[in-house]
Design brief:
Length: 131
């Protein structure tokens, strides 16, 4: 399947933030996305902070548990690489639930993760070098 139909990959913050906007939250999408991010992080310059935004609003549709597990697997890749990942969800309730899931999937990494219900705030947090 064409990844363009499953998610949009773009760069925000003057090319500093790798961004994925999901249209589909299926296991198939999670597997294709996993390979894409795996390739990106493997070739990432160690002198740059890893900044990634994942938008899973998808018009209120639910993301699969496979996507969360793939995200956990990605957190194990290059754990020495500093950076941040912001996840954008549809509402403050979804943000609360997603934060709970992330805490349960917590892994040792130098990368911070936060959930937002607003993309602009997520971008501001990602670009903030004080945190």
């Amino acid at each position: 399947m064409d990844p363009d139909a499953l998610y949009t990959k773009t760069w925000l913050g003057s090319g500093q933030i790798l961004t994925y906007i999901f249209q589909d939250g299926s296991r198939e999408t999670a597997d294709i996305w996993f390979q894409d991010v795996k390739s990106e992080i493997a070739s990432w310059n160690a002198d740059r902070r890893w900044l990634m935004l994942i938008d899973i609003r998808m018009g209120g549709r639910i993301i699969s548990s496979a996507a969360f597990m793939r995200g956990r697997q990605l957190s194990h890749l290059r754990p020495e690489l500093p950076g941040k990942t912001a996840i954008v969800v549809a509402s403050s309730v979804a943000a609360h639930l997603t934060n709970g899931i992330l805490r349960s999937l917590s892994t040792e990494t130098r990368r911070q993760r936060r959930v937002f219900d607003n993309q602009e705030r997520a971008v501001e947090w990602l670009l903030d070098t004080k945190h």
